[in-house]
Amino acid sequence: MKKGVIRPGHVQLRVMNMNDALAHYRDLLGLIETDRDDQGRVYLKGWTEVDQFSVVLREADEPGMDFMAFKVLDEATLDRLHRDLLAYGVAVEDIPEGELKGCGRRLRFTAPTGHAFELFATKAQPGRYGIGNHNPEAWPRDLKGMKAQRFDHCLLYGDDLDGTFRLFHEVLGFDLCEQVLTPDGERVAQFLTVSMKSHDVAFIKHAEKNKFHHASFFLETWEDVLRAGDLISMTNTSIDIGPTRHGITHGQTIYFFDPSGNRNEVFCGGDAFYPDHPPITWDADKLGKAIFYHDRQLNERFLTVLT
């Protein structure tokens, strides 16, 4: 039963040099800069997103993810989920309206994997960049780089996948879309969705808590993913792997790194999910094919480079 969480809202990433980060996220990835605040944070969004921002960059001494946030249906739902989290035994921090520019109050909590998550109901909605909501054109003419359409999901590494699944499923209403199981039935990867997408957040089993693997951004076509690969080469951007296809989710993908070492993905395609669909299961010994369907080989860097 759905609990009122409707979609990913934003991610705040730590970067080590803001100018270099903006050359990457704004000029190469193609996100739109929408604002800055007195803490020096920079706000960005994909061109199809209606909210004021979906990515926040914060300059820091080390890279990684500060938190990922999900939008809920309305303020009453936010209040109810606050009570539900407390009743479940989860500590909740109240973040006041305006702490992020254009965003209402937020609830912050830590999942059993050690990652910080937020819930919010209200954020300024200027509409889709360059085309608006009334008789819109097909796309803005001044887009840059890869022309990322939206922030789509994060993949996170941590130790307690079972506890995190129970929290996300029982309290927040996420469904298990896809999983990887060992021969003895241990779940070592889980792809969770609160929508019709193949996943809105995913977790992989890892001994350390609170590790960030990647933030992913949606492109429209396979041709766009191939063009992203060209741009990565043209700009001497550090590439991880791709273009290729996933077995898990069937998305077509390429992975690369920002100048601070945070991994990004751009992808297209992917399976649709409905609440009556049973989870898709992969055996752990098929993990190479599950992650990189074409060459069926695990890239050690993909598994071990985390921030």
Give a short overview.
This protein has 307 residues and is an alpha/beta fold. It contains 6 helices and 17 strands. It is an enzyme of class 1 (oxidoreductase).
Please give a structural write-up:
19% of the residues lie in helices and 35% in strands. The protein has helices at 18-28, 75-87, 161-171, 222-234, 287-291, 300-304; strands at residues 5-15, 32-36, 42-45, 55-59, 64-72, 93-95, 106-110, 116-120, 150-158, 175-181, 187-193, 201-205, 211-218, 239-245, 251-257, 263-269, 280-283. The strands form 2 sheets. It has a 9-stranded mixed beta sheet with strand order 14-15-16-13-9-12-11-10-17. An 8-stranded mixed beta sheet has the order 2-3-4-1-5-8-7-6. A hairpin with a 5-residue loop joins strand 2 (32-36) and strand 3 (42-45). It is globular. The mean pLDDT is 91.
